[in-house]
Amino acid sequence: MQTDKMSDERTAMTGRRSFLAQLMGMAAATTLGPKWAIEAAEPVPAVLPTIQIGKHRISRLVAGSNPILGYSYAGQHADRHMKDYYTPERTVEFLQNCERAGITTHQFADPDRALPYLRPLRERGSKMSFICLHSQREKVKDAVERTQPIAMVHHGGATDRLFAAGKTGEVHDYVKAAHDCGVLAGVSAHNPDCIKRVADEGWEVDFFMTCFYFLTRKMVHKDAEIPMLDFGLPFFKDDPKAMTQVVRQVKQPCFGFKILGSGRHCSNQQTVRAAFKFAFENIKPTDGVIVGMFPWFFDEVGANAQFTRELGKRA
Questions:
Q1: Is 235 helix (H, G, I), strand (E, B) or coil?
Q2: What is the pTM of this model?
């Protein structure tokens, strides 16, 4: 009996030593930090379906910038939470994660707010391409020189407003200014009629950014009675069908954005998947989507990349 007891004690000691050794190993890994972990097992970047814009081959899923800028479309509390989360360092890490997931392009707005994370991202060896959403023709050259995007796109809200005011020439001049700077030129809009008119008039645009929801409806139809709270925006159920019908008619590549309704299709991953499915089934094989992500408590980057890999394969 004494021998059995001593044997049990030796077994227990061996188990404790093994457990402590595991703890010490984990502690050593923690002390060495994330850089050691990445160098020890650098993952091979994933591959997503791609499309062509100009001379550039890019992923069909593009990382958007609204959450980075604190635009939640859900009220001031959510806006503030996004701004607090997306420090320049965390934004760099987010885009590195996007690149590892196979997302090769980021659409940003406001060069002044983007440069604090674009510079260190490039310094760390990122090969990402960038699309600048912008609306000031006189500052196109400066934006191109400072941020070196592959494309400049006229901002959707500004496009809708100028078209409604009969000032389409200002948007056309922006397109010409972008080409004069040697980059691709795009036009963004929430109003499908703006996209259709640009295409019908044969503007020399390289691609479009097409909002799935006509959020500027009240701006264009000032006499329309649409009762809602002041901070509310008109996310009408059938708007995606109207915009994608136009998308399928134009020859240029289009990037659908707000395909998740600014979070309104994010109650669970089934609804997110359904939104991606609708988007890819209703745009052209040469089109892509721009999606803002807020991976605070869930790996939205990995999930959205997987939905694109699964549903965005070109026929």
A1: coil
A2: 0.82
